[in-house]
Design goal:
The protein is an all-alpha fold. It has 16 helices and no strands. Helix content is about 65%, strand content about 0%.
């Protein structure tokens, strides 16, 4: 009695018996939302909120204490998010990029253009430095007009004309009194010069002292923060006045920054030196960074 051969098993068309199955596929998209990352990077990027959301705590803290790299780091992260190159902590792409990228680009571009328009209008309609300079010139001219007026000095000059013999001693005695009358007239002029500094310049100087004393920022870092439209938005002249007049030890500021990187983030001396001199970091000079590394363990 012959046996019939067993019927062949019908495997699913998409199943390969030679390839093992693990029960699930590896995920190709992360759990973090593109919309949430984009909004946090746009609105709170200077505080590192987008990096905290993606689970990148270390760089989030660094971004927070540097105010988003003085705005540059925040801008770079926003652009990376918009082009779809942003990844979460596990290195996976963000969820919902293909569905919402067009909306994100349109809204970002609209607000960027509006910011440029309103910024240009505000700059064109705010001639404050010119009015301050004109008031300084007018005050100086008024002081110059008032100072030469010394009528009492002319009266003694007319009296000696009647007695030529006594004119010489009178002329010699009177000049000794004239300097005493002119000295008080010069002191108010000096006081006016002290009070003639524009309010914007004084405010910029106060801000510069705060950034230097409390945050130990570099000279270039303070200047960029004062003039940035995302920072203090002072004029270039006011910021330069503040940098020229602020009392700061830039070497000591670099040393304090280096110690904070070493204590809080356990960075190496070479990495600290690069961070101190980087144009996207603290922007100290090479000599200031060298001083900080040399005295780091004092």
């Amino acid at each position: 009695m012959t046996q019939q051969p067993p019927a062949p098993m019908n495997y699913p068309s998409q199943w390969n018996p030679a390839q093992p199955s693990y029960g699930h596929n590896q995920p190709t998209v992360g759990q973090k939302s593109f919309l949430a990352t984009w909004l946090l990077s746009w609105l709170l990027g200077g505080l590192g909120a987008d990096r905290f959301y993606l689970g990148k705590i270390g760089t989030g803290i660094l971004k927070l204490i540097t105010f988003g790299g003085l705005g540059l780091w925040s801008l770079i992260d926003l652009i990376i998010t918009l082009v779809g190159a942003r990844k979460d902590k596990q290195g996976l792409p963000l969820q919902g990029y293909d569905q919402h990228k067009k909306t994100a680009w349109i809204i970002t571009c609209i607000f960027f253009v509006l910011g440029l328009i309103f910024g240009g209008i505000a700059a064109a309609t705010a001639p404050t430095p010119q009015t301050d300079d004109s008031s300084i010139v007018s005050e100086a001219e008024e002081a110059a007009d008032e100072a030469p007026v010394a009528e009492p000095a002319e009266e003694p000059a007319e009296e000696p004309a009647e007695e030529p013999a006594e004119a010489e001693p009178a002329a010699e005695e009177e000049p000794a009194d004239e300097p005493a009358e002119e000295e008080p007239a010069e002191e108010p002029a000096a006081e006016e010069d002290d009070s003639s500094v524009p309010a914007e310049y004084s405010s910029a100087l106060t801000k510069a002292e705060t950034y230097s004393d409390m945050m130990h920022m570099s000279k270039q870092g303070i200047y960029d923060q004062l003039t940035s439209e995302y920072g203090e938005d002072f004029s270039d002249e006011a910021a330069q006045y503040a940098i020229d007049n602020v009392e700061a030890d830039w070497n000591q500021n670099a040393l304090e920054k280096a110690r904070s990187y070493q204590d809080d983030m356990a960075m190496s001396p070479n990495a600290i030196h690069d961070q101190l001199t980087s144009e996207y970091g603290e922007q100290f000079t090479s000599s200031e960074a060298d001083y900080a590394i040399e005295h780091l363990n004092d």
